[in-house]
Model the fold of this input.
Amino acid sequence: MTGTLLSLGHGYSAAALARRLGPGWRIIGTTRSAEKADRLASEAVEPLIWPGADLGSAFAAATHVLASIAPDAAGDPVLARHGAAIAAAAPHLQWVGYLSTTGVYGDHGGGWVDEGTPLLPTTTRGRQRLLAEEQWQALAARSGLPLHIFRLAGIYGPGRGPFEKVRNGIARRIVRDNQYFSRIHVDDIAAVLAASIARPDPGAIYNVADDDPSPPEDVLTEAARLLGLPLPPEVPFEEAEMTPLARSFYAESKRVRNDRIKRELGVRLVYPDYRAGLRRLLADED
Done:
């Protein structure tokens, strides 16, 4: 299968998808800076600097669209500027993916959530993603856009692992009772997106998470074990020094079910838990 993917906000996850799709695909990617545009061009991505570039011709050329630009208080900035162009492209688009977050579910006290769980985000980030989801869904309802929503857990992968902090001695195992995070390796995100492109199901919503939601301190414990280094010190959450953004991640605790990506898309996770993912990251470093 080949096509033209317009990647709105061609970042970490979108780059992994582009690599997975392979050389038969034309990739058009937006970015915010000339420096990043040069890097995209070196990766065989046709760069567009946005905001600024007219995306009309890109939407006209695209067969597939992946949207991952962060929303703001008004929702999705691409829809605000180009909603009409996206609606006009709907008849020839084969697939549209919107990358959201499991933060739209809010806090569940460590309980399990699935795609049918009521959406009650408690953080600003989660509320803005929910607004953007609703805006994309409204456009799809009006135009027939073949929309798929992917609610991503915490993303890790090459360049986004815990090893550097553990090696440098700055890692801290922040401990809070009943605190669970779900995670997903970036290569498994790409596998889910590619599987959805191969099996479009407009209107579908997928949680993208691994099989093992775990307390955050467990990941640092495993990283130290793999490195053969002492465990980072434990710090009670109430005593931890954190930025407001870091602290906001602890405002919600939940475990995310991923049955749908397996049942409907046939995805078999390469990294079903953080242990497998960390082992691969360390092996790649070596």
